Give the backbone structure.
Amino acid sequence: MTTTINNSTSTASDNMVLTNTARSVRFNLVKGKRADFTRLFNSEVLPTLKKQDGFKHEVLLVQEDHVVGISMWKSPEALKKYETTTFPTIERMLSSVVQGKPSIENYALAAI
């Protein structure tokens, strides 16, 4: 079985099964806004994500100058719908605490 993961081709072994879709989003923070970002993420963004069809869960990794959010989705279709209908709203929610455009990558999630 050959699959494409993050634009690279790999051969899946017998015990590797593609199960979900993951999305990584890196936001650069406005200086001194890490605590505000975390508060806003937990109070506004996460509840919005939880309402999305196909959303499974989120991991948020935080450093002083940037954050990386990794969201898990049941299907590429659910992720695509979120990208086009809801993500622009989330970008507006975070506009006071992030700077520039986020860096975004989508992945096929492999479970071993």
